């Protein structure tokens, strides 16, 4: 009887420790964002203080007005949105059928895809930027959003394919076989059975591709030259002076606005991501 009582007692401190560790991790992640929001609403006097507080004494929108007045944030945000949404949609459309074939046809193809993912993610940006620049120059795609979208798709496609392959493998092949026994054709099975079960994976992959493209800086800096074509991460660097001194208030305000689309997109798709992948898939 005593052994039964010691089990929950032993698990209690361990679970409390897990919750404390999770809380500490959440605080660690939230600290930069909370400080960014606080800085965005502080007046210049508080920003220059040697002992700044968490909550602004006199909250102001002056930093936001200055940020929009100094830099074309709306145009840059529109460019980033077009590039990120286009890259996410194209990557998902291309990767989904490739992932299905890779997952269902085991063998050398799966090994080759795995090797491609590892090699593509191991290459640093600086090693590919020169040949990439020359290729896009020959195609007359330098300083265009079309060229930037192509780069984003190629760069995110290997990881997107790897993610979707795992989701396809998690869908039992028996469900497709049962649909075939019931008389459903191949296309009908893919559309009515497999595709709905892949919705969480497709949403997660699209979110990954969108955030990757939205936050990307290096390729956009090199490939986009004119100010009206630049994306939001590149425009944020304009708040840094010639000697590296940051205009802290407007920079914080602009950076805060730049984080909002990612948060909104995640809030819209998180329920689909966390939903049960096989919910409602039981064959009656």
Structure description:
This protein has 284 residues and is mainly α. The protein is 76% helix and 0% strand. The protein starts with a helix and ends in a 10-residue tail after the last helix.
SS element count, helices: 13
Number of strands: 0
Low-confidence stretches: 276-284
Q: Compute the average pLDDT.
A: 81
Shape: globular
Strand content: under 5%
H and E string:
HHHHHHHHHHHHH
Structural class: mainly alpha
Cα-based radius of gyration, to the nearest Å? 24 Å
Fraction in helix:
over 70%
Largest sheet: none
Distance between the termini: 44 Å
Structural key phrases:
single chain, 284 residues, mainly alpha
SSE layout and pairing:
Layout: H1 2-40, H2 44-47, H3 62-70, H4 73-104, H5 108-122, H6 125-138, H7 145-170, H8 173-181, H9 186-197, H10 199-215, H11 218-223, H12 232-236, H13 248-274
Helix pairs in contact: 1-13, 3-13, 4-7, 4-10, 5-7, 7-10, 8-9, 10-13
Short description:
The chain has helices at residues 2-40, 44-47, 62-70, 73-104, 108-122, 125-138, 145-170, 173-181, 186-197, 199-215, 218-223, 232-236, 248-274. The protein has 284 residues and is an all-alpha fold.
